[in-house]
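Appendix B. Chain record.
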Amino acid sequence: MKGRTLLCLTSALALIHCRPGCTGLYRKTQAQLPPDPEVEAGLRVAETLQAEKAVQRAGSELLADLQHDKSASIIEVGFDRLEAAAFDFERRALAAADAAKRSGDAAKFAVEIERLSGKARSWLEYVRLNRTLACSRQLENLRALHDSH
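Structure tokens predicted for this chain:
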């Protein structure tokens, strides 16, 4: 009984102690965001452009692996990396679109955000449709996508 009480007390103290840290982290992150919504939208677009480069790198790595006829496990890892990069790319494009709406001047960012959103969808669609195809088809389709972006 004493052990159980001590465990409950220790757990409660740990939760109380951690709570300010979590709240502090949230406030610290909020403080780092630009106060001007238009500046935030520009920042989000810049982050999306970085995510675009990351997905292109992941696509290039997968392309090289397919061209060099790497093992199925290496190709699978390449698809996983590409999928993760594409999800991040899409997430950042959505965040940029939300920030642009809050900026009051969404039209200023609309063309670039739409271009980036379309590319993110293309990469995700490639992974979804090509993961289980034969390597020759994966390679052919990835070359076409990679060359178009």
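Further analysis of this model is presented in Appendix C.
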